[in-house]
Amino acid sequence: MSENDHDTPDITPASAPYDAQDAAPEIQGTGDPGVMAPGPLRADVVVVGAGITGVVTAQLLADGGADVVVLDASTARSTTTARSTGKLSVLQGAHLARIARHGDDAVGAYLAAGFAGLGWLRRTLEGLDVPVENRDDLTVAATPEQQPEVGTVLATCVRHGLAAHWVDEPPYPVRTFGAVRLPGQGQVDPLRMLSALRSRLRARGVRVHDGVRVRQVRRLRSGVALRTNRGTVLAGRVVLATGVPPGRLGGLFLRLEAGRSLLTTWDVPEPDALPPGFAETMSITADAPVRSLRMAGDLLMVGGEGYPVGREPDPGWRLATLERWTRGTLPVGTARHAWAAQDYTTDTGLPFIGPVFPGDERVLVATGYGKWGLTTGAAAGLALAGRILDEPEEWGPALEPWARPPEPSVSTAATFAAQTKGWACATTRPTGQRAGARRVSRVCPHLGAVVHWNDQEESWDCPVHGSRFAADGTRIEGPATEDLAPARGPRHR
Ligand SMILES: Cc1cc2nc3c(=O)[nH]c(=O)nc-3n(C[C@H](O)[C@H](O)[C@H](O)COP(=O)(O)OP(=O)(O)OC[C@H]3O[C@@H](n4cnc5c(N)ncnc54)[C@H](O)[C@@H]3O)c2cc1C
Ligand code: FES
């Protein structure tokens, strides 16, 4: 498959329901469908989630000789990994400027993780015949106001020995106020990458169970019990590679903000109309309005217009804005694809990679990549597998969830406001229905906020911690572990 074959689902309707396999029989103690073993499935380590984080963790654990099982609710195509832009970079827009406040040790650990993840992916994907195209990455100052932040990115790179430099006139199709350029990064077809990594896991003999949704993680005296839609799974340790952890585990959902972003692809009828050298770069603006660009084969990929889940009154307007900007600014022809994806950002800006509960090695998590989780997700796999196999990464402790105290942020205040408003509304506007779908309660099963209808993606989106549900109430993603309940009260929209 080439980049052009990146057959990403259209932005409507919402992703396939996770629960298609709810009626499936209980999973038994063997990965071999021909052999039935009595009792619940057991393993030394259970990895929940087979996006980039889960597959790398499981691969490394299996390579290290651990008995590992992977559970995933869904297919490769519906992961954030497969729906991403596919940039493998340690430059990451203005992210380095945003985490610079944590000091050089933390930034150094973050960069070391990024390089480790990028290196592992390059080596592994080469062995799997998945092309990683070399690209220079640009963080662009789209306005004079963005220049200082881009300057901080450059200063941070230079302090940490990266070969980044300033360019006054980058190969970018719109006027800029300069950019930081970092050579030696890469881009990949993310669905092809993930499918190859999943296949490799299976070929390695790792038991991978699809259609298994974890609903509860319970710590036992020794080990962990996972309640799933297909029975109980027992593990010595569990790695939650699910984005936000399911349910209320460790309260981490309170420290994460769920954001959606849009991606589009376009024909470029006259490639010469793009600036010379553009195709050898990938780029992103330092701040809003974010525009993320790269070529994907002959198509131009354009991303941006991110928003907090459930808090955008008109998601359709976001897509229209991105499309209008693209048509008005870039030499494009027909629009080919449009889709959205979701990722999580932590209160500190640094990812959470390590124990959910301080000092308890039974339940590990990796999340909060702030939309840069391809390299950082691979790094998380290295850190978590190293931890379990007793070969810890030096940079690991700096990225643990509780390495620094929780930080109140603007998003904390917005979350609180959405929660309060939601609970107030829950008493008066409890139900909703969309064409052809069953009537559902609009009360989010996670913590009781009121979900909002997203007419662009035909989904119910929770403004508080980012759970999403299909029109018929089936859970799609987020910390909620149950579907929206069937409606009982009067109909309201
Ligand atoms: C629009 C967009 C563009 C992006 N572009 C880039 C980019 O160019 N470069 C980059 O580095 N990063 C990018 N990112 C970020 C990156 O894609 C993510 O950070 C990364 O893919 C997250 O990987 P993951 O393994 O944690 O999650 P996912 O890939 O989402 O995988 C999680 C898995 O867990 C499963 N799961 C969830 N809950 C349960 C449950 N309860 N039980 C069982 N299974 C469950 C899901 O089915 C899924 O398969 C982008 C993000 C977005 C939104
Ligand atoms: S996701 Fe937490 S209340 Fe909805």
Question: How would you explain this protein's 3D organization?
Answer:
It is a single chain. With 493 residues, the protein is of the alpha+beta class. Among the domains are: 8-82 and 191-255 and 349-399, FAD/NAD(P)-binding domain; 410-477, Rieske Iron-sulfur Protein. Helix content is 24%, strand content 26%. It has 8 helices and 23 strands. The strands form 4 sheets. Strands 3, 4, 5, 6, 11, 12, 13, 14 and 15 form a 9-stranded mixed beta sheet that branches. Strand 20 (452-454) and strand 21 form a beta hairpin. The model is unreliable at 1-25 and 30-36 (pLDDT under 50). FE2/S2 (inorganic) cluster binds at residues 444, 446-447, 449, 462, 464-467, 478-480.
Shape: globular
CATH-derived topology of the domain at 8-82 and 191-255 and 349-399: FAD/NAD(P)-binding domain
Broad CATH class of the domain at 8-82 and 191-255 and 349-399: Alpha Beta
Structural class: alpha+beta
Q: Mean pLDDT, nearest integer? A: 90
Secondary structure tally: strands? 23
End-to-end CA span: 43 Å
User: Uncertain regions: pLDDT < 50 for 5+ in a row?
Assistant: 1-25, 30-36
Name given to the CATH homologous superfamily of the domain at 8-82 and 191-255 and 349-399: FAD/NAD(P)-binding domain
Q: Give the radius of gyration.
A: 22 Å
Ligand list: flavin-adenine dinucleotide, FE2/S2 (inorganic) cluster
Largest sheet: 9 strands, mixed
> What is the count of helical runs?
8
Q: Just name the CATH architecture of the domain at 8-82 and 191-255 and 349-399.
A: 3-Layer(bba) Sandwich
